[in-house]
Structures are given as C-alpha cells and as structure tokens.
Design a protein that fits this description.
This protein is about 50% helix and about 5% strand. It has about 200 residues and is mostly helical. A hairpin with a 4-residue loop joins strand 1 and strand 2. The longest helix is centred in the N-terminal third of the chain and has 23 residues, at about 5-25.
Length: about 200
C-alpha cells in the first residue's frame, strides 16, 4: 500500500476512534468545585444539611456530623442504630485521625448469659444480636474533639428537614421483603428469639 494511502487509512481509523474515546470520558455528573468548602452525600438533602452548617460558620467536622445526622434520620439504610467510621485531618497535630464508631457489645452480653439462655452463640437477629449503636457515639466524639458547634446546632438541619418527610419507597420495599423474617424473631419470655434457642 502506498505511503499516502496508509496515512489516509490511519487518519480514518483515528477519526473513528476519537469520537468513541471522547464519548467514553463524558459523565452525567458535573465536576464539583469548592473554593472554601464542599458538602457531598449520596442524598441531596444530606448535602444540604452540611451546606447549612458551613453557611453558619461551622467547620468540616460540624458539617460532616450534620450530614450524618440528616442521612441517619431520613434513610433507613443508614439509621441511628448503625455504625460510623471517619478520617479527620487534625491541622494542629498535622496528622489524620481515625474515629472508629462501630458500637460495642452491651456489658451483659457475656458467654455465660447466652449459655444460660440455652444458646450456643449469640443469635443472628433480634435484640440480643445487636451492639450498642455506634453512630451517635461517633458523632459526639467528633464534635467534642474537632467540632466548633453545639450538638443542638448540628442536629437542627436534620430535625427541620425530617419533619413530615415521607418514608422512601426503598424502605417500604425492605420492610415488605423482610417481614416474614421479622415475624420469625418473635420473643419468648425473657426476650430470647425463638429461632435462637438450642434445638429450634
């Protein structure tokens, strides 16, 4: 093939490749810019809570706690009974600090307690399967150590936005999907789920 034909063939190939490559780079989500702050969550109202706190002069930890409060209050997939982990840059110590708010087992949840209830191990579901909620404790620790605003100020956006907020269809579907299993965790006298006793 003559050199001119080869160059033309390469040029045509490139012209077909470039539109595909450029369209692959496009995204439906715009790039976010923030000169002073950025508040991002998976839910727009959660990000709004953070923005409200920034506008009131709060710092990044205050805003993060407000967003955590809003999303935990308004969406079942997070909930106040959940767990939280956070990485916070401490500008005074010039280091990143980890907050591990995964919750802890209640002091009474000992091996002896479960054995006395006729259980070989803690149940998979029900009140005796749960740890103490980690999220509230994590929020309080973050505010105490690194925040600048009060708990009342940080919770205000969540309280304001959640007033009259309808339950999401996703939550309703989750309840419907799990209702039979929830019924199966009917409590006996003493509070031990029927499905957790030996031989059941």
């Amino acid at each position: 093939m003559p050199l001119r034909s080869r160059c033309l063939a390469v040029a045509l190939s490139i012209s077909f490749i470039l539109p595909a490559a450029s369209s692959a780079q496009q995204t439906a989500k715009p790039v976010l810019h923030g000169r002073h702050w950025v508040a991002i969550t998976g839910k727009p109202l959660g990000a709004t809570a953070g923005a409200m706190i920034f506008q009131q002069g709060g710092n990044a930890v205050d805003a993060a706690c407000a967003m955590l409060a809003a999303t935990s209050t308004m969406w079942d997939v997070l909930s106040w009974g959940g767990e939280t982990q956070a990485l916070i840059y401490d500008p005074n110590a010039k280091k990143v600090v980890g907050i591990n708010a995964l919750g802890v087992a209640p002091t009474g949840a000992t091996p002896e307690f479960f054995k006395d209830q006729g259980l070989d191990y803690p149940p998979a579901y029900g009140p005796h399967a749960a740890v103490t909620p980690g999220t509230p404790g994590g929020l309080l620790v973050m505010l105490e150590l690194y925040g600048t605003m009060s708990l009342e100020q940080v919770l205000a956006p969540a309280i304001e936005m959640a007033d009259g907020y309808p339950i999401e269809a996703q939550a309703v579907r989750g309840i419907e999907r799990e209702k039979e299993r929830i019924k199966g965790v009917a409590l006996l006298e003493g509070g031990v789920p029927t499905s957790s006793r030996r031989g059941s």
